[in-house]
Amino acid sequence: MVKKTLFIFGLGFAAQTVARVALAQGFSVAGTCRTQEKCESLKSRGIETFIFNNIAKEAIANATHILSSIPPQENLGDVIIPYLPSGDRWLGYFSTTGVYGDYDGEWVDEQSEPRPNNDRLQRRLEAEAQWQSCGGHIFRLAGIYGAGRSAIDDVKAGRALRIDKDGQVFSRIHADDIAQTVLASMERPNPKAIYNVCDDEPAPAHEVVAFACELLGAEVPPLIPFAQAELSAMGREFYNANRRVKNQRIKQELGVRLLYPTYREGLRGML
Hints:
Blueprint: E1 5-9, H1 13-24, E2 28-33, H2 36-43, E3 47-51, H3 57-61, E4 65-68, E5 90-96, E6 107-108, H4 119-133, E7 137-141, E8 143-145, H5 151-157, E9 162-164, E10 172-174, H6 175-187, E11 194-197, H7 205-216, E12 223-225, H8 233-239, E13 244-245, H9 248-252, H10 263-270
Parallel strand pairs: 1-2, 1-4, 2-3, 4-5, 5-7, 6-13, 7-11, 8-10, 9-12
């Protein structure tokens, strides 16, 4: 019986969660990091690691499953495609629900037309097509949160803001539910499939912050009108697209039962 081996390009927040769950399910796991310090930290957790520029070809060639969380680079396209070995294996790519663009708060699913509203998201859509041409599974991730990266942490650190934009909602997903979706796809491969990975309840970000404050017994920050909010260019970009993302396909095709179906269960889990 062939040993299940997973190689991950880009061991970021969500990908590390996938690695942890895969290890628990008997996979051997290897992947790339940006720094030697991070490599050493992940090695202590049982993950074989490489700096991206020094990727071990043998580790990639022997992988039965390959996942990439690295975004495409400007003027370079998807930098991982040239490293993919030939042969039959499971391939996965982390994209974003941002490729749908603005639907004025309406629902979208995997059949909805993508409307990327900037070059960064257009590159994502092009990278999806590259991965599909190789038989890759596309995971369009909503806003990612999890232990150490959530509204709970923002409130504790005193950096939580409540921004009010009429009718604006965001879809989100707990990292643990990303991991179980990816592993479910490995059990039920469907090359070239696209999956929206999000929870059941799109909600305004200011409601999520208020709930985190309630859980912590902290004072709720005042609402700031969007026009007056001091946001980064990317932060403002997020607020310029409004949509509700459907997740039926991961449930019906992959049998996923969300561990955290809304942000309420997710934030309570943080405590």
